Each structure stands twice: as structure tokens, then as C-alpha cells.
Amino acid sequence: MNAPLLKLEGVNTHIGPYHILHGVDLQVPRGQLTMLLGRNGAGKSTCLRTIMGLWQASKGKITFDGQDVTKKSTPDISQAGIAYVPENMGIFSDLTVRENMILAARGARSVEDIDQKRLEWIFSLFPAMKKFWEYPAGKLSGGQKQMLAVSRAIVEPRKLLLIDEPSKGLAPAIIANMISAFRELKQTDTTILLVEQNFNFAKQLGDTVAVMDNGKIVHRGLMAELAEDEALQTQLLGLSLNAHQ
């Protein structure tokens, strides 16, 4: 495996009286797409939010690109090169697609301030963004909103993308578009940590995989190896990946 860009060591997270993460150890290899799988309530979303500083780790260490970011603020973590796409997408519904993109680009006051070659590249990944450029984001379909959320995250080069269930509730054609876009993203220098419940999506995209259960990482390895081992899938996830083709 490549050297880790992101490393969690013994990370615990409490939310009020609830102890959600219990000593999470996780490595995200540089330049790869790591799938974070697990049953509902296993702690996957909490793990992403803790990495992003939205919830502070109560114990343990988070290292990103050689820097300890455990106690850093969310803006500082973003400035270090991490973008986060939450499950609720985090877009501004009352603003147009164009305005959402301008806000996501640091220091941009107009479209002209965005790298035009990068913007055209994003349009090639998600043609709907160009088509609905002046539409209010709240009027987009669910799939188009997800495309906008990912587009916002990549409007500037990022070292790491944290993406929470990008295929949730999407039609098969939109999921296929997402898979194609993430495959192209994998060809760039971007490292991706992706939470997903659609196991066929995970199998097609993942290089490495970590499985969470009850706030801990219970399995690490290559995605291809997990995809071929139905007994292990059932043990870790309750159902085989093939049941979710």
C-alpha cells in the first residue's frame, strides 16, 4: 500500500453523553480511494466529521500529510487541503449553481476568479452543472444536488476528499455517472475516503477498504479481496456484496 496521507490512531469521539468512536485506527493511503463500510450506526459519518473537526476527538491522534490536525478547527483543516461532502450535501438551496461554486472557491468573487480549465473539467464530469448553471440549487433533482456537492468540493485542487454516501437515493443512471466521475478523480492526485452503503458502488471504485462496527475498525484490506470473499462480507456486514448488485 502507498504511504498514508491520513492516519487515525486510537481516536475516540463523544457527542454529549454518547461515546461513538472507540479507539479508531485507520490509514488512508495517498492517491487511492478508501471505502469506509459498515452497518447503519457503526460510526462512519462520525468518523468523517471528527476528521473534519466538526466534532472534536476526545482521545487519540489524527495526522494529515504529516501534520497533527487533531485539535485544529474545521476552517484550518479545510485550508490544509481536505474537502468534505456530507450526507445532506451541504449546498445552499436559495443560491444558483454558479453562486454555490463561487462560494466554494476560496477568495473568488466571480466566475472569472475560478480556474476556467478546472471548471470545464468539472463540466465534463457533470454536464448537468453547465446545463443548470443559473438554476437555484434547491430546484435541482437529488442526483443533480449530489453532483453539485461534489463539484463544490473539487472546484479547487484538494489533497483529500471525505464523501459521505454519495449514491444514497440516486437513480441507477446517476450512480453510473458518479462512478465514472470518481474513476476520473482517481486519476488525479486526489485521495478519497468514501462512506457508502451501495456495495456494488464500493466494489467498483474502492482500492482499499476499512469496515467499522460499534465505533471501531474491525477489518482493513484490499477492496478486491473483500469483494471476492462472501463469507467475510456476511461476517462483517451482515449481507454479501453480491446481494446488493
From TrEMBL:
SMART domains in UniProt: AAA
Molecular function in Gene Ontology: ATP binding; ATP hydrolysis activity; branched-chain amino acid transmembrane transporter activity
PANTHER family in the record: ABC TRANSPORTER ATP-BINDING PROTEIN, HIGH-AFFINITY BRANCHED-CHAIN AMINO ACID TRANSPORT ATP-BINDING PROTEIN LIVF
Record-linked Gene3D superfamilies: P-loop containing nucleotide triphosphate hydrolases (3.40.50.300)
Naturally occurring in which organism (per UniProt): Paucimonas lemoignei
Family, as annotated: Belongs to the ABC transporter superfamily.
GO biological process: L-amino acid transport
Identification of the protein by name: Amino acid/amide ABC transporter ATP-binding protein 2 (HAAT family)
A family per Pfam: ABC_tran
SUPFAM superfamilies linked to this entry: P-loop containing nucleoside triphosphate hydrolases
Lineage: Bacteria, Pseudomonadati, Pseudomonadota, Betaproteobacteria, Burkholderiales
Domain ABC transporter: residue ranges: 6-239
Superkingdom per UniProt: Bacteria
